[in-house]
Amino acid sequence: MALATPLRLRRHLLLPAGPSPATHRALSLRRGRLLPASLSAAAGGRPTVLVTETLGSAGLDLLRAFANVDCSYELTAEELRAKVSLVDALVVRSGTQVTREVFEAARGRLRVVGRAGVGIDNVDLQAATEAGCLVVNAPTANTVAAAEHAVALLAAVARNIAPADASLKAGKWQRGKYVGVTLVGKTLAVMGFGKVGPEVARRARGLGMDVVAHDPYAAADRARAVGVDLVSFDEAISTADFISLHMPLTPSTAKLFNDETFARMRKGVRIINVSRGGVVDEEALLRALDNGTVSQAALDVFTEEPPPRDSKLVQHENVTVTPHLGASTIEAQEGVALEIAEAVIGALRGDLAATAVNAPMVPAEVLSELSPYVVLAEKLGRLVVQLVAVGSGIKGVRVVYSSARDPDDLDTRLLRAMVTKGIVEPISSAFVNIVNADYVAKQRGLRIVEERVFLDGPPEVPLDSIQVHLANVESKFAGALSDAGHICVEGKVRDGGASHLTLVGSLSVDVSLEGNLILCGQLDHPGIIGRVGSILGKMNVNVSFMSVSRTAPGKQAIMAIGVDEEPGKEALKLIGDTPSVEEFVFLKL
Ligand SMILES: NC(=O)C1=CN([C@@H]2O[C@H](COP(=O)(O)OP(=O)(O)OC[C@H]3O[C@@H](n4cnc5c(N)ncnc54)[C@H](O)[C@@H]3O)[C@@H](O)[C@H]2O)C=CC1
Ligand SMILES: O=C(O)C(=O)COP(=O)(O)O
Question: What residues are in contact with ligand 2 under a 6 Å CB criterion?
Fold first, then answer.
């Protein structure tokens, strides 16, 4: 649950990387680097942020200090699609539909969607994830504004403020018509007890109301702390005089308030909705208003916004409406604008405020600790996929982490994402990042299984080694097959954070994973190392590392040679022709 000080809750994540123009390469998580360089530094230009709805000025100023900001309000869907491929980030409120078509039109450039507010029902999260586009929101700065608006509407309906005001302005003086009801002693059901719900509950308690709440995911002790009982949906709606809605619009809350649920409410109930219009079946509400089940409703939100001019619901004499004003206070708008500007800038830089909606969040300290292993994981992925024989599809990937850490203290999501990135990117046009790694793996039918090997010892070091196994595939390098017949590579992080290859198949090696690698499988005979070394020397290929391992003297051996340059065809042929060299493979890291 986010707290009231979101700016201090900075978390980090690997920035989404997508297929993008060269000038935006800087954003992608480049091999060998944990965090992407900032756009401005590496691309020689500033990122561009498109803002499609009014945003508090302090937030705009913050964005402008970091990026080119294009404020284009009231764009048509077509205009938005045309602009979105020219920007790195998009900042919206509830009035912009960020659909799958928008992500498709972005053609990989759009990296971040910032929702300056809470509800993200106007953003197609699945499409964002598939596109590797991060979605962040500003979930805390408008909480109080929304709660105050709900309470304002609650009091307004109880005392007929809106119709009485209209009547007097129309020249009438109808004191008898607008007799209200008191709030003291009445029961309010707060539906949804996240951030706004409790604020409404607290205020309603202050007005002398009895408050119950329903939220399938809320903790009872949190509710009790504000003097509220958490009750079942049925109990809440059937005992309340007033019902205030504070849940998100999701497939399971859509039209939750319908003919059937209205029928279970107390006759004459009053309903306040400052959440989302879609949680109410508006036609059913109209019927309930007409038959008196619901005596009054106060609506800030509508299924379609703005609602049609002739909407019977809006025009209904027992309905009080506002045009989605819940978050519209000066203070809340300054707050969300700052909150979202911070989050968007952080995400463009490669770190993230604690408000990612479609990506795992990794605390900064965890990220910093895991950073060398993140690099290693990607390199092992790249290595292992190059060992697969052409035409032998990969299905199952087993990643084995050896560690003395308690499983709860080792967050492997990042590592899994990077193994996936390493495996998928060399063999496809897909760009993989932490947002879309699991999705991309699933799409490609890659089943990634993670296993832990528990080591004794002090848990200061997060990991001893990472192994990547590919089962049921043929290898172009027989020496990469383990005794179980899997392609297997293992790596460790050595002092100073360097990635090392420590196992190929079932043979231990020790070679730094920098530059490129030649693996030779040979019979362990004298002179081979020298011969291969001199071939490379003659061809001007600098050897950075060499490691040899054998099953037994005179038997099968593997030579792992790190090389700075890519050897030419002739050099590779000469290596292959070297007596006793049975096979070899050149691998790009
Ligand atoms: N009208 C406006 O301008 C504003 C509207 N909102 C809307 O208000 C709603 C609440 O906002 P927050 O409290 O910040 O969100 P939140 O995410 O903190 O809380 C929502 C709560 O609803 C609960 N919930 C989910 N399904 C439920 C169900 N079937 N029945 C009951 N509870 C359920 C969740 O467990 C969660 O605790 C959101 O829809 C948001 O978009 C928020 C701010 C301004
Ligand atoms: O934050 C929310 O969920 C809201 O509904 C506020 O919407 P708005 O930013 O005012 O369009």
Answer: 93-95, 116-119, 142, 324, 326-328
Q: Which CATH number fits domain 364-588: 3.30.1330.90, 3.50.50.60, 2.40.340.10, 3.10.20.30?
A: 3.30.1330.90
Asked if residue 198 lies in contact with residue 253, where contact means CB atoms within 8 angstroms, the answer is no
In this prediction, residue 504 has a pLDDT band, given cuts at 50, 70 and 90, of very high
Domains of the chain: which residue ranges?
Answer: 48-137+333-349, 142-321, 364-588
Q: What per-residue confidence (pLDDT) applies to 351?
A: 66
The CB of 300 under 6 Å from ligand 1? The reply is yes
Ligand 1 neighbourhood includes 118 CB (under 6 angstroms): yes
Give, using CA atoms, the residue closest to atom 23 of ligand 1. Answer: 192
- pLDDT band, residue 457 (cuts 50/70/90): confident
Q: Which residue has the tokens 């990117």?
A: 425
Residue type, 576: G
**Closest ligand to Cα 138:** 2
User: How far, in Å, is the centroid of ligand 1 from the Cα of 198?
Assistant: 11
- Using alpha carbons only, give the angle 180, 186, 188 rounded to the nearest 5 degrees: 110
Alpha carbon of 324 to ligand 2 centroid (Å): 7
Q: Considering Cα of 363, then 347, then 354, then 119, what sign does the dihedral take?
A: negative
In CATH, what is the architecture of 142-321? 3-Layer(aba) Sandwich (3.40)
pLDDT digits (tens, 9 = 90+) for 337-347: 999 999 999 88
Confidence of residue 411 (pLDDT cuts 50, 70, 90): confident
The reply to whether 382 belongs to the active site is: no
Q: What is the dihedral of CA 291, 297, 300, 305, to 10 degrees?
A: 10
Query: What pLDDT, on the 0 to 100 scale, is given for residue 589?
Result: 84
Measure 301 CA to ligand 2 centroid, in angstroms: 10
What ipTM was assigned to the predicted interfaces of this complex? Answer: 0.99
- Whether pLDDT at 173 is above 50: yes
Say if strands 134-137 and 229-230 run parallel, antiparallel, or are unpaired: unpaired
pLDDT-based confidence at residue 354 (cuts at 50, 70, 90): low
111 catalytic? Reply is no
Site to probe by mutation for ligand 2, drawn from 93, 97, 144 as the one with most ligand atoms within 8 Å of Cβ, is: 93
CB-ligand 1 contact for 115 (6 Å cutoff): no
Question: Rounded to two decimals, what is the model's pTM?
Answer: 0.79
CA distances from 551 to 72, 468, 484 (A): 67, 21, 16
| Distance in Å, CA 118 to ligand 2 centroid | 6
Same fold, 48-137+333-349 and 364-588: no
Q: What is the pLDDT of residues 545-554, one digit of tens each?
A: 888 887 777 7
Q: What is the pLDDT of residue 13?
A: 43
For residue 476, which amino acid is it? K
**Superfamily covering domain 48-137+333-349:** NAD(P)-binding Rossmann-like Domain (3.40.50.720)
Q: What percent of the chain has pLDDT over 70?
A: 92
Token pair listed for 363: 């605390």
Q: Which atom of ligand 2 is nearest to the CA of 275?
A: 5
